[in-house]
Amino acid sequence: MLRLENIKTGYDAGLAVFGVTLEVREAEVVALLGRNGMGKTTTIRSIIGLTPPRSGKIFFNDREIQKLSSYKIARLGIGLVPEGRQIFPTLSVRENLLAVAANYSKNSDPYSVDRVFSIFPRLEERQKQKGGSLSGGEQQMLAIARALMINPSLLLLDEATEGLAPLVCKEIWEGLDILKQRGLSILVIDKDIEALTAISDRTYIMEKGEVVWTGVSHTDNLTTELKMRYLGV
Fold first, then answer.
1. I need a labelling partner for 183 at 20 to 30 A (CA). Which of 61, 105, 198, 223 fits?
2. Is the dihedral of CA 135, 138, 144, 149 positive or negative?
3. Could you give the domains of the chain?
4. Is 116:149 a contact under the CB 8 Å cutoff?
5. SS3 label, residue 211
6. Whole-angstrom Cα distance, residue 71 to residue 48?
7. How far out from the chain centre does Cα 117 lie?
8. pLDDT tens track, the chain, 233 positions
């Protein structure tokens, strides 16, 4: 579904991503791991067009997209849950969802407000509250739900549970597992290695802007030596 070929991306005069190649297949969850500052977020931004690649190619459903504007990429069916959530603070939960509602992937059973509420019941309880009044975990649920409202065929999730309470993290991982069971393709960044490898099919590890390891997602594959060397745990 998604294929990056030797992507190089940077800011100002410097590069942050040096020749990244990866893929996300249909109905697959892929984990992107690495320490802070290793190029994970820049890779996500490259895919969605916020930081366009300087070289290399990105294909989505066999269409070359690296030269397209971000909104055109989103309309092809790629949803983004950005680091920092970036919800609309003055709109209610329901208004946040309705503001972006579309069916870009032409889903025969599209996501609606009620359908995303079934994944994150807490949002239904808070549906009349302003986005800015929600807790951090609730805002993250809202950011995921909002991305689902464009009915993407691929979801990009940058820092799924960073800084959130354990109970809220559990709800988010359960929600992502529901999406996986429904066949949604997901590329996800997070620091919770155990939770992320439990839900993902394959894992990429980045170090200094490059992919240094890839394999089937299983905690046995991520050896202590591997985690100490590239993840600092």
1. 223
2. negative
3. 2-230 (3.40.50.300)
4. yes
5. strand
6. 8
7. 19
8. 999 999 999 998 889 999 999 999 999 999 999 999 999 999 999 999 999 999 999 999 999 999 999 999 999 999 999 988 899 999 999 999 999 999 988 888 899 999 999 999 999 999 999 999 999 999 999 999 999 999 999 999 999 998 899 999 999 999 999 999 999 999 999 999 889 989 999 999 999 999 999 999 776 677 778 888 888 75
Q: Pick from 163, 154, 23, 144: which is nearest to 86 by CA?
A: 144
Alpha carbon of 56 to those of 6, 119, 125, 228: distances in Å? 5, 37, 45, 31
Q: What is the pTM of this model?
A: 0.93
DSSP structure string for 60-106: ETTEE-TTS-HHHHHHTTEEEE-TT----TTSBHHHHHHTT---TT-
Q: In whole angstroms, what is the distance from residue 208 CA to residue 190 CA?
A: 17
